[in-house]
Amino acid sequence: MDAYSAPQVPDGTGEHLIAVPATASGAEGARRVLSVLQAFSPQRHTLTARELAGLTGIPLPSMYRYIALLRETGLLAGDDHGAYRLTPRIIGLARAAEAAETFIEIADPVMRDLVAECGETVIFVRLIARVPVCVHRVESAHHLRATFEPGQSLPLLRGASGRVLLAGLPDRVRRECLAPLAQTDPAEAERLEEAIAKVAARGWATSEEEIDRGVWAASAAVTDGQATVAALTVPSPLVRSPSALQERLLGQVRAAAARLSALIAVQGPVSADSAEPAR
Question: pLDDT (tens digit, 9 = 90+) per residue, 164-191?
């Protein structure tokens, strides 16, 4: 199993159990950011901060923070008159969404087979604008289970899914993703780099209580024959995945990811401008 384990967090956003209360602040912030993007249309392609606040109901001071975040990520651009517009990077996200739809059609039966085999929820995670996003899930029938909503983001620097996706990135892009951590905690960034190198070599990762209390997860890389395009992940309550059963569950995830990779490879490699694939 993984020698690396990120600092544990009692409760967070990502691989969480229904029975474990989680804060909604992160989800609310994400909803607000999305509402800012959705305020634009062909008829309203340029908007001021005040106009965006009026359309979304977000207070103006908060709106300026969201605008700054979207400009920092390259999704929004402003002019000298205080008006903002979407950037062409949105086109890349749209193409990534189209690719995700294609992948979902291929992945769904494989994921259902894996749920039937292991009895746990299975999620399909893609990196969109350098954020791991659950684009599809197939839930288990257990009352106590890890749960996700399609479209939900996961931490990039914590958890098995994040490490698998980081391992699939080009070196330059990965360094950029790790740069903030390297500035605040160089030792932790170095440990994470070493762990990612191991994940890149073997194609899988595991995590235990890195994102939420009581959850162990196994994740394996899904490729298109040339690059990592997604992570196939099974988050499981520790009460049903003690150490004696983890190897079996990991093997099931790896086998399903290999099967899915073979199916996706038939479709051909993902276009470089529809995602941010590994090389």
Answer: 999 999 999 999 999 999 999 999 999 9
Residue 13 backbone class (left: φ over 0; alpha: ψ -120 to 50; beta: rest):
beta
Which CATH superfamily includes the segment(s) 91-265?
GAF domain (3.30.450.40)
pTM exceeding 0.85: no
Q: How much is the mean pLDDT over the chain?
A: 85
pLDDT at 276: 47
For the chain, the structural domain boundaries read: 39-87, 91-265
pLDDT at residue 22 in the model: 38
The CATH-assigned architecture of domain 39-87 is Orthogonal Bundle (1.10)
13 has pLDDT over 70? no
**Tokens 């992940």, residue located:** 233
User: What residue type is 218 in one-letter code?
Assistant: A
Vertex 151: Cα angle to 220 and 76 (nearest 5): 115
Residues 104-113: contacts with CB under 8 Å, at least 24 apart: 104/135, 104/136, 106/260, 106/263, 106/264, 106/267, 107/136, 107/222, 107/230, 107/232, 107/260, 108/136, 108/138, 110/256, 110/259, 110/260, 110/263, 111/136, 111/137, 111/138, 111/232, 111/256, 112/138, 113/256
